Amino acid sequence: MIKTLYLIELKLSLRDMNMPMFAVGFPVGLFFIMYLINTNLVSVPAISAIAIAAAGLMGLPMVLSDYRERRILKRLQVTPVKPIILIFVQIMLNATYSLITLTLLLLLTPLTSIAPPTDYFLFIITYLVVLMAIYSIGMMVSAIAKNMKTASLISALLYFPMLILSGATIPYTQLPRSLQTISDWLPLTQGIHMLNEGYTGALNMTQLLIMIATILVSLIITIKYFRWA
Predict the structure, then answer these.
(1) Which helix or strand (DSSP H or E) is residue 19 part of?
(2) Residue 40 half-sphere exposure, CB side, CA atoms within 13 Å?
(3) Tens digits of per-residue pLDDT, 84-112?
(4) pLDDT tens digits, residue range 112-122?
(5) Which of 44, 75, 110, 136 has the fewest Cβ atoms nearer than 10 Å?
(6) Strand ranges (DSSP E) for the chain?
């Protein structure tokens, strides 16, 4: 059942092309552009975080809000395919896009002068923690948004400031001190810091605790406010 539903959702997603473009095409394209401009600008952790944010903050909440607004989630409650399964499949689908981007970036680094991760295992672990944290925020947005328009607005207000200020596109060290102060409060900023540490074979416990706290708080809010219709 899960496999069939996953393939159906994948076909719908590929037909729409938003996630393939923004969660895979845009980050990989950005990788090449930054590499051609200046190799020092390229950060595999930061670019992979863009894919996480695109899928987790834009794709996931907007699709779930759309399904709720069209009463698809409510109708599924009286079928063998329970709505919780559809939510699980959507998380899997969006995670697939994020992981495809990460895989492409890791495959491309040996072809460039960019150093690969010092410890692949630790980097993957930190990546999965950051992915769960950002996706939990996306689930929270889908829970508190009344409809797709509201979800779209909230997602945009979260995604674009994080995209610009977190170090995902503009290096954190090049931001003015005032913007760095604002940036430090953004979950994606702490996630990128954690990914950078993991990429070099280190683990910052403070950043790990921030990610875990983000997951717990977001999930508590999601469980409390999520509506099926």
Answers:
(1) helix 18-19
(2) 2
(3) 999 999 999 999 999 999 999 999 888 88
(4) 888 889 999 99
(5) 110
(6) none
Give the largest CA-CA distance in the chain. 56
How far is it, in rounded angstroms, from Cα 199 to Cα 79? 45
Locate all alpha helices (DSSP H) within the chain, ordered by sequence: 2-16, 18-19, 26-37, 44-53, 60-69, 72-76, 83-108, 120-144, 148-165, 177-183, 187-199, 205-225
181 Cβ contact list (under 8 Å, min separation 6): none
Contact 142, 218 (CB under 8 A): no
Helix (H, G, I), strand (E, B) or coil at 113: coil
Q: Is 47 exposed, middle or buried (0-12, 13-18, 19+ CB in 10 A)?
A: buried
Burial of 90 (0-12, 13-18, 19+ CB in 10 A): buried
pLDDT attached to residue 100: 96
Q: Enter the tokens of residue 83.
A: 């709505």
For residue 146, the SS3 value is coil
Tokens of 111: 């072809």
Indicate the range of 44-48, 79-83, 102-106, 180-184 predicted with least confidence.
79-83
